[in-house]
Write a structure and sequence with these properties.
This protein starts with a strand and ends with a strand. The mean pLDDT is about 95. A five-stranded mixed β-sheet has the order 3-2-1-12-13, with helices on one face. A five-stranded mixed β-sheet has the order 4-5-9-11-10, with no helix packed on it. Strands 7-6-8 form a three-stranded antiparallel β-sheet, with no helix packed on it. About 30% of the residues lie in helices and about 15% in strands. It has eight helices and 13 strands. It has about 270 residues and is an alpha/beta fold. The chain has one domain: Purple Acid Phosphatase, chain A, domain 2, CATH 3.60.21. Helix 6 crosses helix 8.
Length: about 270
């Protein structure tokens, strides 16, 4: 059995299927880990959702910010992106949304030495804290009234974690860490505005650093796989693997085989 992790698909169904063909993925023998943002911007989000849902246990997908936005739009909290219109007119819309909101925010495989979250793991969390926090916000999203919860968890504050954070303030920080984080400050405060590649940007504010290079970041017993940061592209060090290589921006869609850490990608015209 091979396990492949794949970056943000964002509705690019055709490149996704070409990538699966290229790695010779077999749903009866292999596993897919998908780093979130299945939908939005690309014009085949409906096909992506249906296909991954049909893969059942052969695929594990964590929730990304665009997936959360789709769920919120379904409940009338936002106007959906025009690219999502086919989902809203689909006869299986309700079934797909229920399946999507039951996806995890974090996938952990200690045996293989990896975990996966769409944007990463807050630098101030241990792996035990990350697992606990993911379960904490999965409960209301999977509950009877996810719309009531979603209505209160959009926003940019708080930017610093405190163990005594409560209610929606606590949940907002947790959600943002899993699906929106890119940069942090030296003492762990998060930034949700700067998106540029930290290794290429010339005018980067000196107080901002990639979350995975935060000097107070807690050491984790696993390597973190994440997407979300298309300007960063593919990046790998001893602690993290970044997999969003900008498929929806006419770049590439990338998979990494976790046993060998060999990457495969396809162009996305």
């Amino acid at each position: 059995m091979a396990i492949y992790a794949i970056g943000d698909i964002q509705g690019c169904y055709d490149p996704f299927r070409r990538l699966l063909d290229k790695i010779q993925f077999s749903p009866t023998e292999d596993k897919l880990w998908i780093a979130g943002d299945l939908v939005n911007r690309g014009n085949q989000s409906l096909e992506v959702l249906r296909f991954i849902k049909e893969l059942d246990k052969a695929a594990i997908s964590v929730l990304g910010n665009h997936d959360i936005s789709l769920i919120a739009s379904h409940y009338g909290l936002f106007k959906p992106n025009p690219s999502l219109k086919p989902i809203f007119s689909a006869p299986d819309r309700e079934e797909l949304i229920n399946w999507l909101r039951n996806r995890p925010f974090l996938h952990l495989d200690k045996k293989r030495g990896y975990c996966m979250a769409h944007a990463g793991i807050s630098p101030v969390w241990s792996i035990k804290q990350a697992v606990s926090c993911a379960k904490e916000i999965q409960l209301p999203l999977r509950g009877k009234h996810p719309d009531r919860w979603l209505k209160h968890v959009y926003g940019n504050t708080p930017i610093k974690w405190k163990d005594n954070l409560e209610s929606y303030q606590r949940h907002r920080y947790i959600l943002n860490s899993f699906v929106r984080m890119r940069y942090s400050k030296a003492k762990g405060a998060l930034d949700f505005h700067l998106k540029k590649n930290p290794f290429e940007i010339k005018d980067k504010p000196p107080h901002l650093i990639p979350w995975f290079q935060c000097p107070i970041r807690k050491a984790l017993p696993v390597k973190v796989i994440f997407g979300h940061w298309s300007s960063l592209g593919f990046y790998q060090d001893e602690n993290v693997i970044a997999l969003d290589t900008g498929c929806v921006w006419n770049h590439r869609l990338t998979a990494i085989q976790l046993t060998t850490e060999i990457t495969t990608s396809v162009k996305c015209p």
